[in-house]
C-alpha cells in the first residue's frame, strides 16, 4: 500500500498528516534505504518509538514534536503482541533437556577463523544430503518484519535470537518447540555466541540488543548472568551489530558508533561516533582492554552550509564480527567509512590487533578518503555531507568479517569482501596485498554486504548490486562468484536474474530490481548455501557452481506455533546449520526489501 492510499484510508487519524508531511517522501520510495510502508506497519509501538527517539530514525524523530511523534506511531503500529505464542508452543517435559557436549555452531563464523565452513561431522549434513532437502517445520515470529541473526546450535537445541520479538529462544531442532525463552527487553541485533568452559563446566550465551547492551545468558536455564552497556563514549548513539568472539576466557566485542544516521539532521554537529573493540572477561563481563579506531571527535573549526559547527574525525565503525589468529595471537577486525572530516587511515580497513593488549600490529586501508553519512542521499545532499573535493562519498565499508585460510601448501591468506565489490586477499603477517578482484560497481546497496565463505580451496563472494531503471540485465553482476584462494583467479559464477513469474511479482514487490545476494553464505561439506534478497534459497556445488537445490521462501507458511507467517528477503546472518538441519530466517524489512517473519528448518528427505 502506498503512503498516499494509506493516508486516504484513514484521513481522520492525526498521524496521517504527520506521515504524509514528514515520512512519506522517503518511505514511499523516495529513499532506497528507507523501510517500506508495509515494513513500518509490521512494527510495534515500542519498536517505532525507540527507532524515532534513540535508534535508526533518531535524527528524523527529533524534527517532530512529542505529540506528532506519538500520533504517527499510533497511526502505523501493529497492536501489542500477546505472549501466548511463547507458551502455546512449549516443549514437553521429555523435550526440554539441553546438552552442550556436542556443539555444531558456537558462533556465527563456525570457527575462530570465521570460515563459514562446516564439515559433515560438524553440521550433521553431507553434500549428498543438500540436493534433497525438505521443509521440516516453520516457526512464525509475531509482530516483526525481518530476521537477521545466526543461532548457536548445541546437541538438539537451537539458541535463536528472534530479532524484534526481543526474545532469545531455545528451540528443539527436530520440532521447533520452545524449551525456554529469555526476554532481552529490546530488539535483538547480533548473532549469538557460546563461550567455552568458564570453570566448573559453566558456559554462557552472549547476544546484543538495539540499545547496545550485551546480555550473558545461562544456556541451560535461560536465566541472565549479567547485562552490560557496550557504549564506549557517553552521549553517543552506539550499536552492537557484530557478534562477539570467545577465546581463552576472553570475549572480544565489536562496537559500531558512527553518527551515520544523525548526519542527515541539518542541525546535528556532525559527527561524533567511532568504532571500537572491547575485550571482556567472559565470566564477569569486566573490561580487559579497549581499542578505538580513532580519537574522540572534536570541533574542527568548520561549519556546515547552514552554520552548524562540525566535528571530527568520526566513523570507522566495526559492523562485523572479528576473526582470530591463534598462531599469531591476532584479532582481525574490518571497519566502515568515516562519517565526518577529516578522513582517517582506519576507515574501510582491515586491522590486526594483539589479542593480549589491543595494540595495532598492522592495518590495511582498502579505499581511502571515503567520508559518508545519511546526508549524502537523495537528489540533493544535506548540509552534513562533505564536499566532493574532500571525499569520494561512496559508503564502501566492510560489512563482513575477514577470514583466515591455510592453503594446501601451508601458505595463508586473510580474505574479505567489501561493498565496493572488491575481494581482498592479504598476507596475515603484515597486511600486504597478495591479490584482489572486483565484481560489479558496488555502492551503498551493492557489492558484498555481510561477508564471504571459504571451502579451503575457493572463496565465495555474494554480490548485491541492484538493478536500477537505467540498466539492462547484462549490466548486473549480482550473484555468487567463486575465486581460487591461492591465485585469485575466477572459478565459476552464478549471475542472478529476476524471477517474477507465476505470481512472484505480487509476492515480491521489487522482484525486477532487487535480486542480488547479500546474506552471509555458508559451506556445508563442500556445498554452498546462499540466500537471495528476493527470497530464494540456493544450494550450489562448491566446485563448479551447479545448483543442487532451490527453494522459494517468499510465500506463506503453516507454522508449528500457529502464528501467521510469510517469508521474504534473506539477508544478514540468516543462514545456519547443525544437528542435521539447515536453518534459514526469511524476511528482511530494511532497504525496501521484502518483509517476513519466519524461521525455516530443512532436513534431508528419507
Tell me the name of the CATH class of the largest domain. Mainly Beta
- Tell me the name of the CATH homologous superfamily of the largest domain: Quinoprotein alcohol dehydrogenase-like superfamily
Q: Figure out the total of helices.
A: 9
Q: C-alpha Rg, in Å?
A: 23 Å
Largest sheet: 5 strands, antiparallel
| Spatial order of strands in the largest sheet | 1-4-5-6-7
Count of distinct strands: 40
Q: Would you kindly provide a brief summary of this structure?
A:
It is built from nine helices and 40 strands.
Walkthrough of the structure:
The protein is mostly beta strands. Helix 4 runs antiparallel to helix 6. The strands form eleven sheets. Strands 1-4-5-6-7 form a five-stranded antiparallel sheet, with no helix packed on it. It has two domains: 1-80, no CATH class; 81-604, Quinoprotein alcohol dehydrogenase-like superfamily (Methanol Dehydrogenase, Chain A). The chain is built from nine helices and 40 strands. The longest helix has 14 residues, at 14-27. The relative contact order is 0.13. It is 10% helix and 31% strand. It is globular. Residues 1-9 have low confidence and may be disordered.
Write the layout of secondary structure elements.
Blueprint: H1 3-9, H2 14-27, H3 37-40, H4 45-53, H5 58-61, H6 66-76, H7 84-87, E1 103-105, E2 117-118, H8 120-123, E3 133-140, E4 152-154, E5 157-161, E6 167-172, E7 178-183, E8 193-194, E9 205-208, E10 213-217, E11 224-229, E12 245-247, E13 250-255, E14 276-281, E15 287-292, E16 298-303, E17 309-312, E18 314-315, E19 323-325, E20 330-334, E21 338-340, E22 349-354, E23 360-365, E24 403-406, E25 412-417, E26 422-426, E27 433-438, E28 453-454, E29 458-463, E30 479-484, E31 490-495, H9 504-507, E32 522-524, E33 527-531, E34 536-541, E35 547-552, E36 556-557, E37 565-566, E38 575-578, E39 581-586, E40 598-604
Parallel strand pairs: 2-32
Antiparallel strand pairs: 1-4, 3-40, 4-5, 5-6, 6-7, 8-9, 9-10, 10-11, 12-13, 13-14, 14-15, 16-17, 18-21, 19-20, 20-22, 22-23, 24-25, 25-26, 26-27, 28-29, 29-30, 30-31, 32-33, 33-34, 34-35, 36-37, 38-39, 39-40
Helix pairs in contact: 1-2, 2-6, 4-6
